[in-house]
Design a protein that fits this description.
There is one protein chain. The protein is an alpha/beta fold. It has a single domain (about 1-115, about 175-215), classed as Rossmann fold. The protein contains 8 helices and 8 strands; from the N terminus they run E-H-E-H-H-H-E-H-E-H-E-E-E-H-E-H. It has helices spanning about 15-25, 30-40, 45-55, 60-70, 90-100, 115-125, 165-190, 200-215; strands at about 1-5, 30, 80-85, 110-115, 125-130, 135-140, 155-160, 190-195. The strands form 2 sheets. A 5-stranded parallel sheet has the order 2-3-1-4-8, with helices on both faces. Strands 6-5-7 form a 3-stranded antiparallel sheet. A hairpin with a 5-residue loop joins strand 5 and strand 6. It is globular. The N and C termini lie close together (about 5 Å).
Length: about 220
């Protein structure tokens, strides 16, 4: 079962992907996580990616496609995978189709989690990350017991550059302009499923699960 999760930043794609992983045992491939790892390690790719991420822009196709291609060839992807954060543009979608065709595979379903801009801003701007252990908190939904202090390790909490309001609104705008055409692209292929992402995590997953059960 090969899936793509679409949705703006802060739509809960990562959370839903983890629930799918738990139930169906296929790996989540998050370009965001892969890029952040490269940034944290200070690799050449990471340094290049960081310039774009800090400015709220998309990382260039050739960088991302290279990462994804290598990942899809790993043994744990044989039974299926969930792509989270890729493709973001029609060009990337076409490149993905080619990669999968060479591997004798195809995308079975595209889950599009829909969340309006103001809700996205509220979700992301209130996120805080621990400088020490990387634990993530939310000032509204999951606040730390003590202000600016990690419950797990006592480390200082901070707001990531790409979680600041101006950057979030930029990212949402970029998403609408560049990624929305993918909705049409996959709708034409007959594999697109729209989900209301403003519902609770459990309700959203129940909707996704009912779609996946028909595919499994």
């Amino acid at each position: 079962m090969n899936l793509i999760l679409l949705g703006p930043p802060g739509s809960g794609k990562g959370t839903q992907a983890k629930l799918i992983v738990e139930k169906y045992g296929i790996p989540q491939i998050s370009t965001g996580d892969m890029l952040r790892e490269a940034v944290a390690k200070g690799t050449e790719l990471g340094k290049e990616a960081k310039k774009y991420m800090d400015a709220g822009q998309l990382v260039p196709d050739e960088v991302v496609i290279g990462i994804v291609k290598e990942r899809l060839q790993q043994p744990d992807c044989e039974k299926g995978f969930i792509l989270d954060g890729f493709p973001r543009t029609i060009a990337q979608a076409e490149a993905l189709d080619k990669i999968l065709e060479e591997m004798g595979k195809k995308i079975d379903a595209v889950i599009n989690i829909q969340v309006p801009e103001e809700e996205v801003v509220k979700r992301i701007v209130n996120r805080r990350t621990c400088k020490n252990c990387g634990a993530v908190y939310h000032l509204i939904y999951n606040p730390p017991k003590e202000d600016n202090k990690c419950d797990k390790c006592g480390g200082e909490l901070y707001q990531r550059d790409d979680d600041k309001e101006e950057t979030v609104r930029k990212r949402y705008k970029v998403y609408k302009e560049q990624t929305e055409p993918l909705v049409e692209y996959y709708a034409k292929k007959g594999i697109l499923y729209n989900i209301d992402g403003t519902k609770s995590i459990e309700e959203v997953f129940a909707e996704i699960d009912s779609i996946l059960q028909k595919l499994a």
